[in-house]
Every structure is written in structure tokens, then in C-alpha cells.
Specification:
The complex is a heterodimer. By secondary structure, chain A is mostly beta strands. Chain A contains no helices and 11 strands. The termini of chain A are far apart. By secondary structure, chain B is mostly beta strands. In chain B, the strands form 2 sheets. In chain B, strands 2, 4, 5, 9, 10 and 11 form a 6-stranded mixed β-sheet that branches. A 5-stranded antiparallel β-sheet of chain B has the order 1-3-8-7-6, with no helix packed on it. In chain B, β9 and β10 form a beta hairpin. Classes of the chains: A mainly beta, B mainly beta. Chains A and B meet through β5 and β10 of A and β4, β5 and β10 of B.
């Protein structure tokens, strides 16, 4: 089954706490992405990963880092969360980076208070 | 970098009529233009795409047009049905290695 799974789906954190968002895919896709979605701003690319340990900054990487140690798993880490990182985070994967369909996870809603 | 403008933020159409969403992009090097649908409270899923080697593509009730000269592409939803109500995002890619750049979305509402 072609699926992208995100955990947790909902998270409330205090400012300054660390946040770990996890994403898994069962399609052996090479490329994985983290986007955030905010009202009025659409989807913004945070990081892209071309394969294991091959990651590249997207448009808004500040305040985030990522880890990809296995092809099927891609993590987004917020060290010392800020209130402006309150958002819905979407993970996606694609066969490779060359103009292929993105498959999105269900999203992780993060609230930083 | 690439910028994608989605011209309609909301669209209200009568069931059975057509809905048209227009997008423009800035980078002449862009060559891949997909569309995604997001239903209320859910994630995005792919609906149709077009590449720069063609100017029209159809999949059932969805038609995508591409005008490279004007750097414009559009999604036509024909014979709309209630289940077409959703937010539609256009996107463009000028360098596949940098992922997709999305428009801000168009909320389509289909009323009886």
C-alpha cells in the first residue's frame, strides 16, 4: 500500500522545548520533503532529502534540521521551538526528484505556546 | 527562485458548471506543473499534471492548459460535482532538485 505516515498528528509544546516530527514511507522513494502550511502562505518547503544522508535546505530552513538515516524514514527536528513555528507540517515523498508525483502524509499539527 | 501566483483565492460554481483556476509562474525554465487537491481537514493529493512539451492534457473531467509564452497554466474542472469542493493548489518546478513551488490555493465550492 502506498502510504506516507506522520507521527505525531497533533502536538502541543512549550516555547524552548525540542520537537521531533517523524515521517515514514513504504514506497522505497528516494526523495522526501518537509513542508509547512500556514493560512495565507500556502505550502513552504523546509527541507528536501534526495536519499540517505543527502539533505538540502528548502526555502525556509531556519530553525529546523532534518535527519534521514534510512530511506524510508525522514525526521524534522525543531531545537528550541518558537511560537512562530506553530503550523501544520506535511511530509511528502516522490520516486525521485525529477518531476514525479508527490505523495503527502496526513500532516502534523504543532502548537507552540 | 520560482514564484507561483494563483489568481483566484475562492471560486463558487453551480453543480454541473465548469470551474477554472489560473496560475502564473515566473521562471521560464519551469517545465513541470502539477495540481493538488486538499479536502477539508485532510492532506493533499495529486490530481493532474502537465509538462512543458505539451500544451493540453485531460484526465476525465479535468483539463490542464499550459501557455509557455505567457507563463500561465490553468485547471478546468468540467461538469462539477459536490465532491469537487476542496482547495486546489497549482505548483511549478524549475529545477526538480529543489522541489515544487506552490501557489496559495483556490477554495472551490460547488453548490446545488
Amino acid at each position: 500500500d502506498m502510504k506516507v505516515t506522520q507521527m505525531p498528528r497533533y502536538l502541543i509544546k512549550r516555547m524552548g522545548e525540542n520537537v521531533l516530527l517523524e515521517c515514514g514511507q513504504d514506497m522505497s522513494h528516494e526523495t522526501m520533503y518537509w513542508y509547512r502550511q500556514d493560512p495565507g502562505l500556502g505550502l513552504q518547503l523546509i527541507y528536501i532529502s534526495y536519499d540517505v544522508d543527502s539533505n538540502s535546505e528548502g526555502d525556509i530552513p531556519k530553525g529546523y534540521r532534518v535527519s534521514r538515516k534510512k530511506r524510508e524514514h525522514f525526521s524534522l527536528i525543531l531545537d528550541s521551538a518558537k511560537t512562530n513555528q506553530t503550523s501544520v507540517y506535511f511530509c511528502a515523498s516522490s520516486l525521485n526528484y525529477s518531476g514525479n508525483t508527490l505523495y503527502f502524509g496526513e500532516g502534523s499539527r504543532l502548537i507552540v505556546v | 527562485g520560482e514564484k507561483v501566483e494563483q489568481h483566484e483565492s475562492t471560486l463558487s460554481v453551480r453543480e454541473g458548471d465548469s470551474a477554472v483556476i489560473n496560475c502564473t509562474y515566473t521562471d521560464t525554465a519551469s517545465s513541470y506543473f502539477p495540481w493538488y487537491k486538499q479536502e477539508a481537514g485532510k492532506s493533499l493529493h495529486f490530481v493532474i499534471d502537465i509538462r512543458s512539451n505539451v500544451d493540453r492534457k485531460q484526465s476525465q473531467r479535468l483539463i490542464v492548459l499550459l501557455d509557455k509564452k505567457a507563463k500561465r497554466f490553468s485547471l478546468h474542472i468540467t461538469a462539477t460535482q459536490p465532491e469537487d469542493s476542496a482547495i486546489y493548489f497549482c505548483a511549478a518546478s524549475n529545477n526538480y532538485a529543489q522541489g515544487l513551488t506552490f501557489g496559495l490555493g483556490t477554495r472551490v465550492s460547488v453548490f446545488p
